[in-house]
Design a protein that fits this description.
Oligomer: heterodimer
Distance between the termini of chain A: 68 Å
Largest sheet of chain A: 2 strands, antiparallel
Largest sheet of chain B: 6 strands, antiparallel
Radius of gyration of chain B: 28 Å
Distance between the termini of chain B: 75 Å
Largest interface: A-B, 52 and 65 residues
Number of helices of chain B: 20
Number of helices of chain A: 5
Order of helices and strands of chain A: HHHHHEE
Strand content of chain A: under 5%
Chain lengths: ~140, ~675
């Protein structure tokens, strides 16, 4: 009885643990691909500087900071933020963040799972990519 | 059943070792499927340990005394609740609980991050499984709760043996706070393994931004909360159950859970500086390594028997393994930190001493100095034994002499730190922020002096408490006023929204408030009074403003103990205010071990604490000890406030692209306009 129970437990655990070795699609663990990108880092730092700025303004309104301190700190944060925005511009992000993110996701997907990448078609009028099977362009509304 | 339990533990060990090697192999080969398999092994090993735990609970519930653990820590007359709680009533079972909690935490981490941080996760899993394997090995081979009792027959043959009844659960442990105190403390000790694992993974993968900190912030906070609650419950237990009138005795085991709490507190503060300013990166990694190791060190002290303590868990077999494990972890972590130093460079330097950064830094230094002082005092018997050959124990005076000044400085920083501006604060700003707190604190100091208070530390403590209290009230008051002006909400609503809008900051302030309340309670210690008297019914004793009149002495019997109970009427100003019934219990199963059941009358101003010490030497009278402990109530109340404040900081945020920075998209856009307009 005991031996049967133990045997059963081993079999269940074995099947559960070893299945991924044979079943899961072989999407390689692309360390470089999924690592934090320069974009992630810049965006995180931008968010942090913005939140520092907001806190600073709030603390000033609370009457906790002298005018001098406020102006000095604000100027510091703003120049930091401006520099970050420049860097983001350099990456071509500032114009349309959503589009950049979409593109980034599509690229990662395509690299990770080459078989499953969505097929797209270029819009003849504006040049935007649309998934296959769509009749109209999501960007300009032109007929595909 | 006991064989099944051992088997489940062995299976769990195999699975966790497989998880350790498979995750490292998967990372090395960049094979996602191997990592997945390793993650499943972590979850399967958790399930297997759960089975082992259930089998031990079954053995306990059915009083199977052929198992040593069951025979040692339960008896037939014990209520079912305590039978189950006896799981952690002895060394080996509590180790199983430890292993179980570790496995559950590892399983949760794996599940939470099954789609995230794919690059770090193999190493996180490896660290978690390494940690789990170590404890499993100890649990299976050195301290197995499923070991069966054997009897050596004449002629040298061994035979299984099952005594008719067990030895019973240590009566001191038969108290509700004691039942939940160990599991809660364990959640606190063990939880630090998660941020530690992420820190190591971040070091290995060279991703030393604040990702690992943000990911583990909640883990750290929850762990820290559990450790704090565990400490408080332990204190409450000591207060109500040990009957010596206090709640903290600087016992080595108390100290060993205080140390990771202090280091964890330092860590919680210093990560803010990294998140906000990109500074203190090396420090933070080092701090979490220290915190994790102090947690392990805590178990080492509790279990190795290296130092005598009320927590008689001693089993010297284990000590040396803990020592090797700690040295190995420390060595490996330090090597990694030194090797990755170039990635841990600070993004800026400290501008001024009068800045919030430096306040955080001081706070960290003080917490670590406190931690080191506690470590030194705790280890002194061992160190003196090495050097001089005799164990010299350091008593509470040492800890109080060192702890009180450090504690007061920390209290001061609690008030000062949050009011400093980042980078540099001008004197003008300081005047604005500190005018009222300083005035009101000094006013209180003068009033106390005029009222005849002369104790230096008491004066400083109350003055600083007032100072910090006013700074916190002022923060809420001024913040709410700004919000009222901006949104037009009424004051109460604005204050609630202010808190919810910036949970980390205002939740943090509430925790600071709790610290003040607890300091008020701790300061009350300076005024404790105590008196003892041998009494018979009809006698009276006097303590403080109370007159205690003994009216009855009664002896009786409950399921698993006999008791003697004194009934005392308490008068204050000639009026009867309370009847109190301190008890002395003698437990049948535990070789007549006795406990004192304290009678407690607790008010915010003071506790009246009455103990029946037992019959006097001539057997005709009953020894009654009464304590008046001012302000103790505030310690427990402060603890409750601390839990509330921490829970507020843990409330989930609304998700937005600026979730980490707690900004809405609109606010971010507004700020961006401002930046671009320059």
């Amino acid at each position: 009885m005991l031996i049967a129970t133990c045997g059963l437990l081993v079999v269940i655990a074995g099947i559960y643990v070893l299945t991924p070795l044979f079943k899961e699609p072989g999407g390689n663990l692309e360390v470089e691909l999924l690592a934090e990108t320069e974009l992630d880092r810049l965006l995180a730092r931008k968010a942090m500087v913005y939140s520092n700025l907001k806190d600073l303004e709030f603390e000033y309104k609370m009457g906790r900071l002298s005018d001098g301190d406020f102006r000095r700190l604000e100027a510091g944060y703003k120049s930091e933020a401006a520099k970050l925005l420049q860097d983001l511009d350099r990456l071509g992000v500032a114009k349309d963040l959503d589009e950049t993110i979409e593109r980034d996701i599509a690229a990662r997907k395509a690299k990770l799972f080459p078989g499953t990448a969505e097929k797209t078609r270029r819009c003849p009028s504006c040049g935007a990519e649309s998934p296959l099977g769509k009749s109209y362009c999501a960007d300009c509304g032109g007929k595909l | 059943m006991s064989n099944l339990g051992t088997f489940c533990l062995l299976l769990a060990l195999c699975l966790s070792l497989y998880g350790l090697f498979a995750s490292l192999l998967g990372a090395a080969l960049k094979q996602h499927r191997i990592v997945r398999s390793a993650e499943r092994a972590a979850i399967a090993s958790c399930a297997s340990i759960l089975l082992a735990l259930v089998s031990l609970l079954y053995l306990l519930a059915t009083s199977d005394f052929s198992v040593e653990h069951v025979a040692q820590s339960t008896s037939r007359d014990l209520p079912l609740f305590y039978k189950l709680a006896a799981l952690w009533g002895a060394h080996d079972g509590s180790m199983l609980l430890w292993v179980f909690v570790t496995a559950v935490f590892s399983g949760i981490v794996v599940f939470q991050n099954r789609f995230r941080y794919r690059d770090m996760m193999p190493y996180v899993v490896a660290v978690l499984m390494f940690n789990l394997s170590f404890f499993l090995i100890l649990n299976i081979f050195l301290s197995n709760p499923f070991d069966e009792l054997v009897q050596v027959l004449p002629g040298g043959t061994m035979q299984k043996f099952s005594p008719p009844d067990g030895r019973g659960l240590n009566p001191l442990l038969q108290y509700w706070a004691m039942v939940i105190h160990p599991p809660i403390l364990y959640l606190g000790f063990i939880g630090f393994v998660v941020p530690f694992a992420f820190a190591i993974a971040a070091l290995i993968t060279r991703q030393l931004g604040d990702t690992w900190i943000r990911t583990t912030r909640r883990w750290t906070l929850v762990t820290w909360l559990f450790l704090g609650v565990g400490l408080i419950l332990g204190g409450k237990w000591a207060y109500v159950e040990l009957g010596w009138g206090g709640y903290w005795g600087w016992d080595p085991v108390e100290n060993s859970s205080l140390m990771p709490w202090l280091a964890g507190t330092a860590f919680l503060h210093s990560v803010i500086v990294q998140e906000r300013k990109g500074m203190l990166k090396v420090w933070n990694v080092l701090l979490i390594v220290i915190t994790y190791l102090l947690g392990i060190f805590g178990t080492f002290i509790t279990r190795s028997g290296i130092i005598n303590s009320v927590h008689a868990f001693a089993d010297s077999k284990l000590g040396v393994f803990f020592l090797y494990y700690m040295l190995l972890v420390l060595g490996a972590s330090l090597y990694l930190i030194i090797d990755r130093l170039p990635y841990l460079k600070s993004e800026r330097r400290l501008d001024s001493v009068l800045s919030r950064e430096s306040a955080f830094l001081f706070n960290n230094l003080l917490l670590l100095v406190a931690c080191f002082a506690v470590l030194w005092g705790t280890m002194f018997p061992v160190l003196s034994n090495w050097v001089e050959g005799t164990k010299i124990t350091v008593g509470p005076p040492f800890f109080n002499n060192v702890g009180v000044p450090i504690g007061l400085m920390l209290l001061l920083l609690t008030g000062v730190g949050p009011l400093f501006a980042w980078r540099k604060t001008s004197v003008e700003s300081l005047k604005k922020a500190f005018l009222w707190p300083v005035i009101l604190a000094l006013l209180l100091c003068v009033v106390l002096l005029a009222a005849g208070m002369r104790s230096f530390y008491v004066l400083v403590s109350f003055t600083l408490s007032m100072f910090v209290l006013v700074t916190i009230v002022q923060e809420f008051w001024k913040g709410t006023r700004v919000r009222v002006r901006k949104t037009g909400e009424n004051f109460a609503l604005a204050m609630v929204n202010l808190t919810l809008k910036n949970k980390r900051r205002y939740g943090g302030y509430i925790v600071h408030l709790a610290v003040v309340l607890m300091f008020i309670g701790l300061t009350g210690n300076a005024f404790n009074r105590e008196t003892s008297q041998a009494m018979v019914p009809g006698d009276e004793m006097q303590i403080g403003r109370y007159t205690l009149k003994m009216t009855e002495y009664h002896e009786g019997e409950a399921a698993n103990y006999q008791y003697g109970r004194a009934t005392l009427e308490v008068y204050s100003g000639g009026k009867l205010i309370r009847t109190m019934q301190p008890e002395k219990r003698f437990y049948k199963a535990s070789e007549g071990q006795s406990t004192t059941e304290v009678a407690l009358y607790s008010k915010p101003l003071e506790d009246l604490y009455v103990v029946l010490a037992g019959p006097s030497n001539d057997g005709k009278r009953y020894e009654i000890t009464a304590h008046v402990n001012p302000l103790v109530w505030w310690v427990w109340f402060g603890a409750a406030v601390m839990v509330a404040g921490t829970l507020i900081t843990l409330l989930p945020d609304k998700r937005s692209s600026f979730a980490n920075a707690q900004l809405t998209i609109a606010e971010a856009a507004e700020i961006e306009m401002g930046v671009k307009a320059r």
